[in-house]
Amino acid sequence: MHSNDILTTFTVAAALGVCLFTVASFLQVSAIVVLLIGGVIAGPQVLGIVNPSDLGSGLSTIISLAVAIILFEGGLTLDLKGYRSASKEICRVLTIGVLVTWIGSTLLIWTLFRFDPAFCFLAASLVIVTGPTVIGPLLHRIRVRERLHHILHWEGVLIDPIGVFIALLCYEFYVSTDGSHQVVVTEFLMRFFAGAMFGMAFGFLLDLVMRRGWIREDHTNIFVLSMAMLNFGLADLVISESGLLSVTVAGLVLGSRKTPQLRSIVSYKVELKDFLIGLLFILLAANLDLAAFLDYGWKIAAVVLGIMLLVRPLNIFFSMYGSTLGIKDKLFLSWIAPRGIVAASMASLFTLQLKQLGVEEATFLETFTYSVIAGTVLAQGMTAGMVGGLLGVLRPVASGWIIVGANPVGRKVASFLKAQDIPVVVIDTNARDVRVAMREGHTALSEDAMLMAPDAHPQLYSCGNLIALTPNPDLNRMLCRRWSEIVEGSVFRWEPSGYETEENAHLLVGDKVWDQIPLNRWMQSGSESVPLEVVHAADGTPSPANVLMTANGRGVTTKRPSVVGNGDRAWLVYHATSEDTRSTIPLSPSNVILSDQHKLFDLYREMIVQLQNTNPGVQPDGLLDEMWKREEDYTSLLGHGIALPHVWTDEVERAVLIVGRPKTEVICPLTNSTIEIVFMLISPSGKPDEHLRNLAQIAKLVGTEAKRSKLRRATSAEELYEIITSL
Q: Under 8 Å CB-to-CB from 540, ≥6 apart: which residues?
């Protein structure tokens, strides 16, 4: 076999898979449909540019490893809280519904094909799962009522590990038979316990290594990936066919342990999983025997129709017996059950492995599963909106609001919206501010709005608008860009006046609001004196210049009115104070340095040591540890190359500012963005107002590109100090 053929097949499959994933995302359709169609067209039966046979026995190895990593990632992301909080309907779908689907599909297959019962159970186990990667885009497109959305979403997410375990156990059960198809119980139990024990051991070992910090942070992801592959290989080497079960258990253990590095591991694994799915499905689709679909004739079509029109409705009506769901809701749930990636990948893997064992009917697994996938995804995906409309289960456009920022400003805005009976959800990574928001009666989530999966939070179903109210304007812009593709309504962001530049204006997403008001000084945790007030029509009418939000009969608007309308019910008003906010920043010439450091941590250390020269009571190591811990949790990068780390401490009597400009490129660890100037503010404990005023003044210093350009042009520390104090 020519090595160029192997290289061509592998590289084309990988590139085509990623490209088709992007196409599917752009078209907002199920990726599995696009991948399957693309794989068949690229395969040997059409264009012939992807030939899985060129890979020889390596095809089975690639598929095995890819499926193992996909299952490991699925175990990592298992939401045990979702099981605990699942409603009665979801719990019944995951128990009674699973049994009905499994047994009903088994009886259909056995009735029409008369295969060995153990083989029928194995085939039926592959179509238990409803694919979350297929359900997600479908629900986002058709907007069903909240309760139905909740049931379908959590069924797709939580049924994955259940279906995987049942399929793996059925596979172990089937391969643990002798020539007369009598179950060899000891062999089956050995495979099961070996896989489970290996998986638990690897999971707990990985958790221990991560918690002890024995692996460098920048090596964590590749270490976990390599250990997952080693787990799969060793388990399979000790007892054949136990590797998949082992790696799934390892993922479940590591995910349930809430390992500190889990977020970065999951983020990395999600990207790797998408790459592997793209590669895998191009190879699998190209390797499909299309003639087999015709060979099984009308019987395969009858099985698919039976699963869609008989088994699924039985699943729902048995599961929902005694539920308060109406008949139309149950009929809609009966129609929506598309299968997806897990079913297809495991079917292809089992088919290859059973062919190597000489099982004649092995091809049926792949043909049957892909027929169910094609039938459910195409038929149900294309008609879901129409069926939902006919049954009257679709919901109107969501009118609620998501507020990113549980700071005092965000909470004031949330209170205003809540007073108008508008659903509001506050999101923030600051757990303290989230707790305060919850004590004030708001629905609040301690999550990163840039990374969180919206479908995993039913509280967001009624929210169609978003406003980003963090003190970081660049983060607000990124939030608007991400959520504009998720929410159905509008997105808004706060940023200071003059922050927008002409060259990037066309790239911005969302409406800018309240840019003339220095709200960032009240967006810091602990700030209490927020000059925002709710004024009702019965209390008089405010000046239009001070109005931030208006509630009237049509809803809520963020546009500042030229006149206050008679039909307005309430206003969110900003009360400017007479306090002079143009405070002088606490900077001395000796605390401006040009640094030769190449790493941000070393630059911080040099700046804090410089602080010690003028403040002998400062302990550099302790202050550096506290500041760097904050940096690892949330970057101090404001954007445009400006970083603003800040901290309170009892080691200084008055606020002090240190400015450091590196001579060479310094990279922000969390964002990989270049940092050009660092403004480090150290304030005494117990003086939050002064601290916030200084932060606001510093932000104002770097608020426009013209000011930032002046700072960059400085060639010495003395010149940089003169420019800062003159701005």
A: none
